[in-house]
Amino acid sequence: MTQATGSPSPRGAAVGRGIGIGLMYGLWKPRVLGAWRVPATGPVILAVNHSHNIDGPMLMGTAPRPVHFLIKKEAFVGPLDPFLRGIGQLKVDRTTVDRAAITHALGVLENGGALGIFPEGTRGEGDFASLRAGLAYFAVRGGAPIVPVAVLGSTERRGRLISALPPLRSRVDVVFGDAFEAGDGSGRRTRKALDEATVRIQERLTAHLDEARRFTGR
User: Where is the Phospholipid/glycerol acyltransferase domain (predicted)?
Assistant: First the structure.
């Protein structure tokens, strides 16, 4: 199949996974739990909490499949622009309805790929307290199950070079949860149906994060 202009490259995402493995295991000590819960084939959405700047690269390096992440356009600056595109990542403008990003993200799912999303939109407490409706839309429209992922790093500030990063060589837990369907089975994509799906998603993601924290002691 010929890759459409601007479409994320599956081969690029595989290269990105290799880079992520090298960097994340070289700089930190990832402990991966439940990776077997990620479907081996077919479309899937990995919904990740976002409290550290390494959450995306960490998932790219620890997920059992290459991941195409929706990343804010502000990150695509200078040499990072061609690099991120080259490793199959998707640029999204969060200030508007970015139809190009939507098309490319749905294309990832239609091609049976893994789409990575930060449902909270921006880095914050990483507790899934504020979800955007985009996750529900992609899950229902793309017919893809959602796998919740909790990335839990050290909260210690000692040893940090940058405040938004866990201390180098510290343990970072990546906990994958059970896959679930966001829709109600009707296939409806109305605003009401997506709002209801968003509530269901938030409940499942929050429950997974709470369980992951209890299990890891984070």
Answer: 44-154
